[in-house]
Design a protein that fits this description.
Order of helices and strands: EEEEHEHE
Shape: globular
Largest sheet: 6 strands, mixed
CATH topology: Nucleotidyltransferase, domain 5
CATH superfamily: Dinitrogenase iron-molybdenum cofactor biosynthesis domain
Number of domains: 1
Radius of gyration: 12 Å
Structural class: alpha/beta
CATH class: Alpha Beta
Distance between the termini: 24 Å
């Protein structure tokens, strides 16, 4: 499974999840068997060739229709900002589905 996060940098430890309008790097997280396999960074979302399953955004107010049109699940991390926090919340099903 591939999960995409809009980030403010390509620093796995210090990078923060940001609004789609503020994204500087896209983190592509390969997730399998309950754990993170690999994290790669891309300058643009179009550069990602893998089939993305989930995108995590910071707010219900984000413009996410391009993801929905591609049948990508949109989850919202209202308070989580680091990759570790987002992925831990994902594992424990604490991220929220987008409220339309």
């Amino acid at each position: 499974m591939f999960i995409v996060l809009p980030m403010d940098s390509d620093d796995t430890q210090e990078g923060r999840l940001v609004a789609l309008n503020d994204v500087k790097q896209w983190a592509l997280i390969e997730f399998d068997a309950g754990e993170v396999v690999e994290i790669r960074y891309f300058d643009t979302r179009e550069a990602i060739e893998e089939p993305v399953d989930i995108v995590v955004v910071t707010s219900d107010n984000e413009y996410v229709w391009p993801f929905i049109e591609e049948q990508i699940i949109v989850l919202v991390a209202h308070t989580q900002r680091s990759i570790d926090d987002v992925m831990e919340s994902f594992i424990f099903k604490e991220l929220h589905e987008l409220a339309y």
